[in-house]
Design goal:
The chain is mostly helical. It is built from 29 helices and 7 strands. Among the domains are: 61 residues, no CATH class; 104 residues, Serine Threonine Protein Phosphatase 5, Tetratricopeptide repeat (Alpha Horseshoe), CATH 1.25.40.10; 149 residues, no CATH class.
């Protein structure tokens, strides 16, 4: 199991905030290009969510699913789809999976500027891309989305978040004198960059995430005399490369900026970090901090690199500095906690471990949606042996990151092996198998919990049947598959019997392909003939009696002859009583007579201590009289069966079992 750690959006994962653009919208869904935001909202008012989700997956979307966009969609879901929370969840996943690959940029009119400013910016970007010989569609400028000037950063964020874009570009023209004016553009990042997992550690106990901060939410661009010569063009294209994880080209462009500031150095540091060039990244982050000692993001990311480079004490110092700048950063709190925990374990210092846990817990309080903090909190609690609390924390993580099958499995394994809470474990393990159906380890653990808890209802039967069909394509070796197939077949069979599906149970047993050659004695061979239907089960007038008989012979077979598979909890004395009950109502029932007789023969082969253990005799009494009478009862029962069958092979096996019992009687 892998451990994880964040860089600077938080020590455990990073996001790139970017603004996105909307395509022209229509009143109904069409087979055209990507789905626009207004088109999606119209569809949600008139169509079922499954159809809308299908359209999103087939066409893609032209907008970015920002938090503001999702808030609007959530309101529509409440109004029109209040009873389809599952469908709405599927729609949100589809939107996240189909986010535009290009950087979507909304441009607001520049204060003090002219209408042609937007066109000039678009032309300048196009010319720069041609100069770079870039064939890909890196970005999309949306000039029509915002029709008014923006004066404040929070206003830029509110508009971009509501419209659904990656970036909002805004700014102004300023007079520097009677005849000189300059262009002052600004960028507000709206939507987070896609995450890159940074993992650290290999054991279940050290499953930590440490996150970097991936983006600066705001950028001031150096003034210029004209839009065409503005650094804005380079920055937008560099951010386009950055968003597409093309860090080499992003860094090349950023290095062309003649007067880099702290923000530029920050992005250069991230570009180096994400290609694992820690030495170069460290230098860039140090330059960013030199340019701005309060650069929270650069302090956080520098500390993250130091942690990942096994310099926890230096990391701790810089996380502390970052928290002094931004004490409410859940990501820094999380990373600070992990660092303290690691130092505490290395020094065997329980106080530092406890402080580290408190930092991580505070991160979950500051931001309950921080999946990495919940994951780390659960991992540390698990490491110190607080399993129930660890399960609670990891469950919070799974509420946010429901697709992480490894943590579903981890929780199931803890519940099963450490806490013995098998039914709870099954819920987690079933989810793990659903998410990764070929993982043999998941299947094996799940089946193990089924053996511990006897459930034979309709839902359980469906689960057993589904999992047995997964075995051929699983990662399990052939021998393990064979063993699990036997166990699952038995679970299916007992469920079918309990549900009154006797014919289906017989078919299930026959598919197990068990033959007489697997048994070297008359007892096993006769028991196999009973359960395989070679000795007819007819003779019961009541269906309930037929069900009891089927259950008894199958329990008898699996408990006394087929040991390497599942068995409901029942002892040999209960089996004897079940046969006696059947024979009390049907004294000449062949199958019940044979079953009871061979069971007597099997019990006589047990050591005398087992007779006491199973309740046939007490510790105080002499077992000799009971042994002789029990043996004679078995002989009488088998002799009663002999004249009821004309099948030569069955008669021969009955005779062998009678002789075997007679040998136990005194002369």
């Amino acid at each position: 199991m892998m451990s994880r750690i964040p860089f600077t959006n938080s020590l455990l994962t990073y996001w790139f905030l970017v603004a996105f653009v909307l395509a022209p919208y229509h009143l109904s869904l069409s087979a055209g290009g990507p789905l626009g935001f207004e088109e999606l909202k119209s569809a949600m008012r008139t169509r079922v969510l499954s159809k809308v989700t299908q359209e999103v997956r087939s066409r893609g979307i032209s907008f970015v699913p920002t938090e503001g966009v999702k808030a609007q969609l959530e309101e529509l879901a409440r109004q029109y789809h209040a009873h389809d929370s599952e469908g709405y969840g599927a729609l949100l996943r589809a939107l996240d999976e189909n986010e535009p690959s290009e950087l979507v940029v909304a441009v607001a009119p520049f204060l003090g500027g002219e209408e042609r400013d937007k066109e000039e910016l678009q032309i300048a970007i196009k010319e720069k891309l041609e100069e770079l010989k870039e064939p890909r569609v890196l970005l999309r400028l949306e000039n029509a989305l915002i029709d008014r000037t923006i004066r404040r950063e929070d206003e830029a964020y509110e508009i971009g978040n509501r419209l659904g874009v990656h970036l909002v570009v805004w700014g102004m023209w300023r007079s520097k004198g009677a005849k000189e004016i300059s262009f002052h553009p600004k960028i507000r990042v709206i939507h987070t960059h896609r995450k890159i997992a940074i993992r650290n550690g290999e054991t279940v106990e050290r499953h930590y995430n440490i996150e970097p901060i991936g983006d600066s939410p705001r950028l001031e661009v150096i003034e210029s005399a004209a839009i065409k010569t503005s650094t804005l063009v380079v920055v937008i294209i560099a951010l386009s490369y950055y968003r597409g994880n093309d860090y080499a080209n992003a860094a090349n462009l950023l290095r062309t900026i003649t007067q880099p500031d702290s923000e530029v150095y920050f992005y250069l540091g991230n570009c180096s970090f994400y290609v694992d060039n820690y030495k170069e990244a460290t230098a860039y982050f140090e330059q960013a901090i030199a340019a701005d000692p309060n650069s929270f993001k650069s302090l956080h990311n520098l500390a993250t690199i130091q942690y990942l480079s096994s310099h926890p004490q230096e990391a701790l110092q810089n996380f502390e500095k970052a928290l002094r700048v931004n004490p409410a950063s859940d990501k820094t709190l999380n990373n600070m906690g992990i660092t303290l925990v690691e130092i505490g374990f290395a020094e065997e210092n329980q106080q530092k471990i406890a402080r580290g846990i408190e930092y991580i817990r505070e991160a979950t309080t500051v931001n309950p949606a921080n999946e990495n903090a919940w994951l780390n909190y659960g991992a540390v609690l698990l490491r110190i042996g607080h399993e129930p609390s660890a399960i609670n924390a990891l469950t919070e993580y799974l509420e946010i990151k429901s697709e992480d099958h490894s943590i579903w499995f981890l929780c199931g394994e803890i519940l099963s092996r450490r806490l013995k809470r098998y039914e709870e474990a099954q819920r987690f393990l079933l989810k793990a198998v659903d998410l990764d159906p070929t993982n043999g380890k998941y299947i094996e653990e799940l089946v193990g919990t089924w053996e511990e808890v006897e459930r034979f209802d309709e839902d359980s039967l469906k689960s057993y049947q589904r999992v047995i069909n997964l075995l051929p394509n699983s990662t399990l070796p052939g021998g393990s598959q064979t063993t699990l197939r036997k166990t699952l077949s038995a679970l299916i069979l007992f469920s079918q019997i309990e549900l009154g599906q006797n014919k289906e149970a017989l078919d299930t047993f026959r598919h197990m392909a068990i033959t007489e050659t697997e048994f070297d004695n008359c007892r096993g061979k006769l028991s196999l003939r009973l359960v395989s239907g070679m000795i007819p089960a007819s003779g019961f007038s009541e269906p309930s009696q037929a069900k009891i008989y089927s259950r008894t012979i199958y329990l008898h077979f699996f408990s006394r002859h087929y040991f390497d598979t599942f068995l409901p909890s029942i002892g040999p004395k209960q089996l004897v009583e079940a046969y006696n009950s059947l024979l009390a109502q049907h004294p000449s029932h062949l199958g019940s007579l044979i079953g009871k007789g061979i069971l007597h023969a099997q019990i006589m082969r047990l050591p005398s201590r087992a007779w006491i253990h199973y309740g046939f005799v007490s510790e105080e009494e002499d077992s000799t009289d009971w042994e002789n009478e029990f043996t004679r009862d078995g002989i009488r029962t088998l002799r009663r069966a002999l004249p009821l069958t004309q099948i030569t092979r069955v008669r021969s096996l009955l005779t062998q079992c009678i002789e075997e019992l007679e040998e136990r009687l005194p002369e």
